[in-house]
TrEMBL record:
It comes from Stagnihabitans tardus. SUPFAM superfamilies: MetI-like. It comes from the Bacteria. The keyword Ribosomal protein does not apply. GO terms for biological process: transmembrane transport. InterPro entries: Bact_Polyamine_Transport, MetI-like, MetI-like_sf. Pfam families: BPD_transp_1. This is ABC transporter permease subunit. It is a multi-pass membrane protein. Keywords: Cell membrane, Membrane, Transmembrane, Transmembrane helix, Transport. GO terms for cellular component: plasma membrane. Residues 59-247 form the ABC transmembrane type-1 domain.
């Protein structure tokens, strides 16, 4: 039975990581197409990608949108979670449901809805519009993580701080946020990961200032190339590093 379990686990990991391994291996292909047979090892495709001004600009756009929108989503999610967890409001259950609802909606529907609203409001497709879209999809995640992490011991510490004369801003900054630091870090890094890889909303809400996934899609329209494998490998590396940092923070909390 144990051998069967290990076999199942090995097959599951192979199913998940084999496409990624093939992507990475053929990013070093010394040929014009990332297909078998493997023709030797070269770094020229990575050199080409890193020297491509359009790709590097798109990379900067992705980083700006990912970190900016994640920071805004984290701040709004934390404040909403703190308010709904600490204050008994009429309809608080409905409010929590409405905040989490975007997690159940397709990104395509959200992107089309935002595109319609922005067109009516006269807001042109841009990185700002894309950032707003990413706040919409990441806010529910940040809210859910922060709300789940709030406990009675934090509530007692906040009450003690107020009794000692701390203002609400001081309580949030010096008591609530530090006690929720692992949850806040988890919410932020997950948001960065989702925003970094997101394509549909970025495609709909950008025009000239495109993000990296949109630029990769433009490259794929002209056919397969080891260069696309190289940029895909770099994107995977960044996403994996973010997840590793997140996992490390969560283990330290445990």
């Amino acid at each position: 039975m144990k051998r069967l379990s290990f076999l199942y686990l090995a097959l599951a990991y192979a199913f998940i990581f084999l496409p990624v391994a093939v992507l990475v291996v053929f990013s070093f292909q010394d040929g014009r197409l990332p297909v078998p047979p493997f023709q030797g090892v070269t770094l020229k495709w990575y050199e080409k990608v890193l020297s491509d001004e359009g790709l590097m600009t798109a990379l900067g756009h992705s980083a700006l949108v990912a970190f900016g929108s994640s920071g805004v989503a984290l701040a709004l999610g934390f404040l909403a979670a703190h308010g709904l967890a600490r204050v008994a409001l009429p309809g608080s259950l409905l409010m929590r449901g409405l905040l989490i609802a975007p997690m159940t909606v397709s990104y395509l529907i959200i992107g089309l809805g935002l595109l319609t609203v922005f067109n009516q409001a006269g807001i042109k497709p841009s990185l700002v519009a894309t950032g707003i879209g990413h706040v919409v999809i990441n806010l529910p995640l940040c809210f859910a993580i922060c709300f789940a992490a709030m406990g009675d011991h934090q509530k007692s510490a906040e009450r003690a701080a107020r009794d000692l004369g701390a203002s609400e801003v001081q309580v949030l900054w010096h008591i609530s946020a530090p006690m929720l630091a692992p949850a806040l870090a988890a919410a932020f890094f997950l948001s960065v990961t989702f925003s970094w890889d997101e394509f549909i909303i970025a495609f709909l809400l950008t025009r000239f200032e495109v993000t990296l996934p949109v630029e990769i899609w433009s490259m794929l329209r002209s056919g397969l190339s080891p260069a696309t494998n190289a940029i895909g490998s770099l994107v995977f590396l960044v996403s994996a590093l973010v997840v590793i940092v997140l996992e490390t923070l969560m283990r330290r909390k445990a």
